[in-house]
Structures are given as C-alpha cells and as structure tokens.
Design a protein that fits this description.
Rossmann fold, four-stranded antiparallel sheet, alpha/beta, Arc Repressor Mutant, subunit A
C-alpha cells in the first residue's frame, strides 16, 4: 500500500517514539506532519490538510483528551490514540470522547500501520456503507435495505436487536465501540450502563455468525473497553 496521498499528523512529545512512527509512515509511503504540543497540533489541524490524527495523550501543555474534544466540535477525522496509558477506563474515556482507536505503547510498526489503513478505509466508507446496499467483511455481509445478514452467501436468521447490533458494527467497521456507546445506541440513553443484556445479546449473535464463538473471527472483544468488528 505505497504512495499514499493521505497526510498523517503525529502528535508526540517523545522524540524517539516520534522518529520511530515517522520512519514507519515514510517506509509505507504516507505523508506526515509532526507536533510536540497540543496547541501546535490544533494549529496544524486548522491550517493544514490532515487526514488522520495520531495522538499521544500525555502532552506538555495540556492533555490530549482536550484535543479530541476540540477536534470533534468540527471534524470527524479519524483519531488514533497512541499512549502509554493502559488502564481500561482511560481507553474507554478516550473512545467515548471521540477517538476511533487506541494503541498502547509499546507497539509494533506493523500494528500501527494496520490501524491507520483501517481508519482510512473507514473514512472513505463514511460510516460503514457509503450509500451501498450491501456491505461485507470476509464472509460476513449485511443488506441494509432488506435488513438481512449473510454468512458465506447463506442467509442467517437474526432477531431485530441482533440485526441492530450488527448494523451498528458494520457502520463502524474496524473501530472499537465502547460498551457504553453500544448500550446507548441499541437500548437508548435511559437504559443505563448495565452490560448484562449486551453480553447476552452479543453471545447470541456470535453463536449465529462465528464458527467458534469462543475464538471469534469477526467481532473481537476489547477487554474492559468494548468490541470491534474486524475489517477483512
């Protein structure tokens, strides 16, 4: 996947990590800009043509969470958090604030580039289906017009709630969705944060679309955070 036109903004105050990321981006053919502070990052986000934001949270002037909040006021640009903070709550908070993905340091360049490619594909799909009637990942597909689900070309009978859950994932292919976000979208704001119903719903859906629900191919659990539909 060489000679990319997309420009990545790398916001990182650790020179060694920043150089590591930039080298990986250069090898893959991405254009990139860098910033070492939140203020410089926001300035470039306004003045430059940026496609994807790679954001460290621990910045010297103010926290990267503030960058996410400000950017989400006017842009749906993909945000990938790259941070040493590895607590589940911090990951969930960043994703709920508007980040699309969260990569914990240390990480491999292979994983970083894969996350960027997924973010770019998602950006071009504009929320998952981009007006298409039928979307698929691997052998799993969904027909948004007819509200049907297919596995390896065969229709899978799902309940209305299971369809709603899977449709939510397909509109956000490759993104980590927090349990809080999923519950709000599926059950409504007034449902609270009880995850028992969601776990039961997910278990039933996995039994229908996964050959081995204990080792799912399509919907992966992000422990302590939520779930992700893998982009194949």
């Amino acid at each position: 996947m060489k000679n990319m036109n997309e420009t990545i903004l790398v916001v990182e105050d650790d020179a060694q990590i920043k150089n590591y990321i930039c080298y990986a981006l250069k090898q893959e053919g991405f254009q990139y800009l860098t910033a070492s502070t939140a203020q410089h990052a926001l300035s470039q986000l306004v003045s430059e043509q940026i496609d994807v934001l790679l954001l460290d949270l621990g910045l010297p002037d103010f926290d990267g969470m503030e960058v996410i909040a400000r950017l989400r006021e006017w842009s749906e640009m993909p945000i990938i958090v790259v941070s040493a903070r590895d607590q589940d709550k911090e990951k969930a908070d960043a994703l709920d604030a508007g980040a699309d993905d969260y990569l914990t340091k240390p990480f491999s360049s292979t994983e970083l580039l894969a996350r960027i490619r997924v973010a770019i594909r998602h950006m071009y799909k504009e929320g998952g289906n981009n007006g298409q009637h039928y979307v698929f990942t691997g052998g799993l597909g969904i027909d948004f017009d007819k509200h049907l689900v297919y596995l390896d070309g065969t229709e899978v009978h799902v309940t209305p709630l299971e369809y709603s859950l899977l449709a939510l994932f397909f509109r956000n292919v490759g993104k980590v969705l927090t349990t809080k976000y999923i519950i709000k979208e599926i059950y409504g704001i007034g449902y609270g944060t009880d995850t028992q119903a969601l776990r039961a719903l997910m278990s039933g859906l996995r039994r229908k679309i996964e050959k081995n629900p204990a080792k799912p191919r399509y919907i992966h659990t992000e422990i302590g955070v939520g779930y992700r539909l893998i982009d194949e």
